[in-house]
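Thread title: Can someone regenerate the structure for this chain?

I was given the following input by a collaborator and told the matching structure tokens would be attached. They weren't. Posting the sequence so someone can regenerate them.
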Amino acid sequence: MTDATSTTRFDVVISGASFAGLALARALVTAFGDEIRIAIVDLKPRTASPSATDDARAFALSAGARRMLETLGVWGDVAAVSQPVTEIQITDSSLDAGVRPILLTYDNHLEQGEATAARETASHIVPAPALERALSAAVASSENITVLAPAGIAEFADTGAGMSITLDDGRKLQAQLLVGAEGRRSPSRDRARIKTVGWNHGQTAIVTTIAHDRPHEGRAIQHFLPAGPFAILPLPGNRACLTWTEDAAEAERILALDDAGFLAEVETRVAGRLGALTLAGPRQSWPLATHLTRAYAAARFALVGDAAHGVHPIAGQGVNLAFRDVAALAEIVADSLRLGLDPGSLEALGRYERWRRFDSAMSAAAFDGLNRLFSNDWLLLRAARDFGLGLVDRMPEIKRRLVAEAAGLTGDLPRLFKAERL
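Best answer:
Regenerated them for you:
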């Protein structure tokens, strides 16, 4: 594509090689093979093998998202470096509490009848670089996916017959559908003039990896501390990814510490549960904010993942919401193409928006509410919280429903989340 005066035609162009963008491309090619042509346009040069220094995060990948990756032939490359979560423990205490009693514990497996097999694990902890490597390899293996990087989209317009797209180097593309998947600061969303509503939390997320003496036994721990949630996510071996929320000013102080001082802050929060600790990865941080778009779609244009919604990481559901977007949009595009309909029509994209917008808005509101409920040290409210957690701990049916919800197996599920091919 060196001639700037010619136009290269694709069925779908995806702006952004994010987890959502890569997964969507893979889903469509898995459904149609040689009958579809996809382009991914990304501003960053593609890295053949992302390392943990590029992204220290780990995701609590739900059973529904894992089923999708299995169906797309991606999970095999991720499974070896992922950790099944066998149990989840929740505490609620002040930072200097001498004892942090476990208020709520639940087994993290799905009951027979909710799963394709008995005792299916409801979630796995997956390092972000491993997930990116697997998705990138799956995309690279397809001759029907063209990756244009580094490149950006300068402008696009609906011509009636398709979406006309001009790259920043003058190359021209045409597609039936353009998808914005660049993340929270989506330039294609801005060019489509889709507004967002959102708010800052005044908090900073900190993430790092530790090694520890005692085995975690697949147990994930969520400490609710006054500054925000502190999550210990188990990784293969005696390692864990720590994701915690701090007041922005306190986070700045912690991040400025040397390794010994930083580790001391970690040890205070882990509270001796895992024995002796050492740092086993870089520390990274980012400010926390929530946003929702006022629309998920326009003429021949749709948003997926963080471009459509950014949520608080309190429940670790951001990537799972993104993959539900992917599964829903891929299903609608596949159904439209098989019926000879236009996948970029307002009718098709309106169905996608109705399918995903309410679920994402409710999730964002729930995560924000939980953060506000637990990110304080008011004694009476803590007593009420602890009573409520203790009550839930004695209700096995409620706990089973919570596990199914976190596993991404409730509501109107896309076929890929049910391990069904498109």
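Residues 7-96+103-198+289-412 form a domain with the FAD/NAD(P)-binding domain fold (CATH 3.50.50.60).
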